[in-house]
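Key idea: predict the complex, not the pieces.
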Amino acid sequence: MAEQVKALVLGAGAIGSFYGAILHRAGVAVSVVLRSEYDAVKADGFRISSPLGDLSFRPAAVYRSTEEVRESPDYLIVALKVVEGIDRVASMRPAVGPNTTIVLIENGIDIEPEIVEAFPNNAVVSALAFVAVSRVGPGVVEHKAYGQLMLGDFPKGASPATHRFAELLEAGGVRGVVSENVVTERWRKAVWNTPFNPTSVLAGGADTKIMLGSPTSEALIRAMMEEVCAVAAAAGHALPDDVIESNIVNTKKMPAYHNSMALDFLNGRPMEVEPILGNVVRAAEKHGVAVPHLSTAYALMRMLIANQQQNKA
Amino acid sequence: MAEQVKALVLGAGAIGSFYGAILHRAGVAVSVVLRSEYDAVKADGFRISSPLGDLSFRPAAVYRSTEEVRESPDYLIVALKVVEGIDRVASMRPAVGPNTTIVLIENGIDIEPEIVEAFPNNAVVSALAFVAVSRVGPGVVEHKAYGQLMLGDFPKGASPATHRFAELLEAGGVRGVVSENVVTERWRKAVWNTPFNPTSVLAGGADTKIMLGSPTSEALIRAMMEEVCAVAAAAGHALPDDVIESNIVNTKKMPAYHNSMALDFLNGRPMEVEPILGNVVRAAEKHGVAVPHLSTAYALMRMLIANQQQNKA
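Result:
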C-alpha cells in the first residue's frame, strides 16, 4: 500500500481550508498552519458546509507557524494573501523539503517569480481558484458554489506534479483543470479583477451594479479592461476578442455584489493591490504599453493606503 | 449725494459673508439670503474676525429666500455652491431686476453660460476668490489670509459694471483685480483645483503631502495638470509653460492641508465635482483632447457619489 500523501496548508482562510477539505476527502493527510484561528481549529477542526455535503474535517496537525513543522509535506498549499507585511518566502521556507511541491493558490499577476527564485529546486504549481467560499467564524467556512481549480507550471507547461495534484482534486470532488498556459489564464482572470477591484475601493466600496450603472462608469471599466488585454497581449498572452464583452455581459447578469478587495477595504483588512493592479502596471511599463486608466487607479490606491496609514498613526 | 449702492448676497457662507463685509465697509447696503443660519444672522449679524480688523456687520436685510426680496439690488453676489440639488437660476430669478449686475463668486470652469442664458439682459461678472476664510459657527467666520478677487466679463472683456465692482472691493479693503480674460484665469486656477480636489477624495480624504508624497502620486498629479493645460490651450486659453512646475513647487512648500472638496467629502457635504472636474472633461471632449487620467477620476467620482446615495437610501 502506498504511503499516504501529506499536504500542508499555509494560510488556511476560506480558500485554503476549502481545498484542504477537498484533499482530505481524497485521502490526503492534511495539516494546517494558522495564526489567529489556531485555538478554534485545534479544538474543533474546520466546520465547512457545502453543496458537496459536509466537508468538516480535523487536520492531521495544527501549527501556529511553519517553524513547528517537523516533516516537510509532499504538497505545500500556499493560500496566503499577497500583501505588504506578509513575507511569503520566509513563511514557507521551514516547511519546504527537497521533494515538496509548492502549490500557489493566490490572486493576481506575477506572483510566482519570487517563489520560483527562492525555491529553484522545487516544483511550483500556479493555481487559480474558481470558488465561492467565505469565512463565517473561526474555523467555520461556507462553500456556496463552484470549486474548480485551474493549475499549471510557471511560466508554462504541466509537470507530473501538477497532473498528480489535479487528480487529487478530482478524487476529492472538484474539477482540477490542468493548463499548459496558466499565466494566460491569470491574465484572463485579470481582465475582470484588475478593473473591478480597485475601482470598487476608490468609489468607496461600490458594488458591481454601481460600477456598471452609468455610461460613464461602464466606459471606465471597459477602458481598463482594454488596457489589461493590451498588456496581456504584449506579454505574450493574447486573449480572445470577446473577452471584454463577455465579462461585461456576465457581470450585468449577476446580482450586485462586492468583490474581494471591496470587502477587504470595507472591513479594514490589507488589500491585494500589488498582485492585482501594481504588477499589471509594471508589466505595462516593461512592455511599453500605455495604461493611463490603470495607472491612475494604481496611484490613487497607493495614496489611499498612505492616507490609511497616516490616519492610523 | 448719490443713492447708496445695494448688494444682495445669495449663499452667505464663508466666502459670501466675507465679501459682503468688504462691501459693507465700502458703504454698500448689504442684504443677505441664507437658509440654515437665518436665525443666528437675523439675531446677531455676522461675526467676522480678520487681519483687516473686525469685519463683523449687520446686514441691511436678512431673507430666507429671494422670494422675500421686494427691491432688486444693484449687485447680486452669487456665492452658491455649484452642486446638484441647488438650482442657481431659480434661486436668483426673483431678485434679478433690469439693472442688476450679477457677480458670480464660484469655483470651476464653465459655470457662467447657464446664468448668461437665463439673464441675457443683465451684466454678468465672473469672479475668482483668492481668500482663506472658514465658517466656525452660525454666522461666525474666520478670515485668515488673502482676500483678492479677480473679476471680468464672461467670456471676455471688462465692462463698466465690472470696473465699478472692483472699485467697491478696493474701497472695502481688498484687491479687486480686473481681467480682460477671466476665463483664462479660471483655467489657471483649474490647473491646481482639478487634479488635487478629486484625487484627495478618491484617496479617502488625503492631504497635499500625501498627494505629492511619492513619485507615483506626483506623476499622477502632474499628468492630470498636463491634461488640464492641454484642454485650456485647445479652448483658447494657453497657459505659461511653467504653470505646472510652479504649482508643484508651491504646493510642496506649504504645510499639508485638505482642499475644499476633501473637506466637503470628510464632512458629508455635497462636492463641486461638475464645475471643477466634469466641465473640464466635457470641454476636453468638445475640443477632442484626450484626458484619460482626468476622465478616470471623473468616472470614479460619479461612482463614489452613486455609492454614497445608495448607502443613504
